[in-house]
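Task: sequence design from structure.
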């Protein structure tokens, strides 16, 4: 939804089209400008096949995966720990200090720098580098927020020993915090304003600190939005730890997937017509309704899959598949997110490099990158197409595999296979939507 819709997010369109000249403008374009590139997709003509054909191939692959699992995976391999992970002690280390320093630096830039998303490093740092970069880093390095989060340092109530003196926190807090960030980025009419970023960071931080006052410092590990997201994505990464499933994973993934789905849907002609010429809080209200609507659809689909997977298969006393299915959504939601936002990171990551030399918009050139340009032709690189298609396919296949393995641990083979086929059908619908919304 960037490019010709750039102003929808409160980011100045001049950021994309002009030479950087002092503190008011940011960068100049190298290569042809194509608004479709900013839809977080690979751009027109870059795909190896039309999106509709890719969706057919994806559906066949999902159903083929289920059939293969039926023939080759007869017993559980315990890929997912079925117990739910309680809050653990949030230990403070050097990484937490580094995280706090970075947050203070971004907040300082947002407050004292120019109130322009083109000349201030704060918006691109929070809404691009942090938002898009964190899940990718977690896939590579694991749960980085466990050692990088600044919030354990700010905790008003420090848990004793194992944190057993703290009241049990609800499971929805991480989803609520992530939903707040998603609303600011996707629905608020001017998220690119550094002053708006500053206000949001302060309010978000105060809410987390108040959470530590109620539930203790151990709650921060997975109870805060990005802590929960980092823990969940880290479980499926290259360095995934062995252990229990973080609490609230299902709700967290539904919020994350709903936000990504709305971001993709908001670039369609239908939603552009709905927004029309609306501005300010009217536009925020419309986007809020759309965000809630898409998230509700995703949640309804999730509940339907749980109901069908459990219907008539086992006695009611057996454990339902809602929690395991929530963890199975992690690779699926991660695939959606990375495929959708990869080009945003590639483009505005270049802008971030330029702003590193002049973070406060004072005309500095501290690192010699002041005149760094955004090269839009990078989207035409073959590896970009491969990554976007690959993460979608791998994420959906992994979701089916995880649910199949977990269902075998909780069900007899026949009802377990019913759950697997149900997940395969849901994944087919999901990858079709991704092909039509993300890869167009």
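Answer:
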């Amino acid at each position: 939804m960037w490019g010709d819709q750039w102003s929808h997010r409160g980011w100045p369109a001049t950021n994309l089209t002009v030479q950087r000249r002092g503190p008011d403008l940011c960068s100049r374009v190298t290569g042809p400008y194509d608004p479709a590139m900013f839809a977080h997709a690979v751009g027109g003509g870059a795909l190896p096949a039309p999106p509709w054909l890719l969706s057919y191939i994806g559906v066949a692959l999902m159903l083929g995966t289920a059939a293969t699992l039926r023939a080759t995976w007869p017993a559980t391999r315990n890929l997912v720990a079925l117990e739910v992970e309680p809050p653990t002690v949030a230990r403070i280390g050097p990484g937490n200090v580094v995280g706090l320093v970075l947050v203070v630096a971004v907040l300082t830039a947002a407050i004292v720098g120019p109130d322009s998303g083109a000349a201030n490093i704060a918006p691109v740092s929070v809404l691009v580098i942090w938002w898009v970069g964190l899940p990718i880093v977690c896939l590579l390095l694991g749960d980085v927020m466990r050692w990088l989060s600044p919030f354990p340092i700010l905790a008003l109530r420090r848990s004793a020993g194992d944190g057993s003196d703290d009241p049990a926190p609800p499971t929805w807090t991480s989803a609520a915090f992530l939903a707040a960030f998603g609303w600011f980025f996707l629905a608020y009419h001017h998220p690119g304003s550094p002053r708006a970023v500053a206000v949001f960071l302060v309010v978000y931080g105060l809410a987390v600190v108040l959470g530590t006052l109620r539930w203790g410092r151990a709650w921060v590990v997975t109870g805060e939005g990005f802590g929960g997201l980092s823990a969940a994505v880290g479980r499926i990464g290259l360095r995934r730890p062995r252990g229990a499933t973080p609490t609230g994973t299902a709700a967290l993934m539904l919020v994350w997937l709903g936000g990504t789905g709305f971001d993709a849907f908001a670039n369609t002609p239908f939603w552009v017509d709905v927004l029309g010429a609306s501005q300010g809080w009217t536009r925020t209200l419309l986007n809020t309704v759309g965000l809630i609507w898409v998230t509700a659809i995703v949640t309804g689909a999730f509940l339907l899959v749980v109901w069908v997977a459990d219907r008539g298969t086992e006695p009611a006393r057996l454990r339902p598949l809602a929690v395991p299915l929530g963890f199975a959504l992690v690779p699926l939601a991660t695939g959606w997110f990375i495929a959708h936002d990869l080009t945003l990171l590639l483009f505005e990551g270049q802008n971030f490099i330029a702003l590193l030399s002049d973070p406060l918009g004072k005309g500095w050139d501290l690192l010699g990158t002041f005149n760094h340009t955004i090269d839009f032709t990078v989207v035409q690189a073959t590896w970009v197409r491969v990554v976007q298609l690959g993460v979608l396919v791998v994420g959906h296949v992994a979701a089916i595999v995880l649910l199949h393995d977990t269902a075998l641990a909780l069900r007899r083979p026949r009802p377990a296979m019913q759950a697997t086929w149900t997940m395969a059908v849901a994944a087919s619908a999901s990858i079709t939507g991704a092909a039509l919304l993300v890869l167009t």
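Confidence is low (pLDDT under 50) at residues 1-45.
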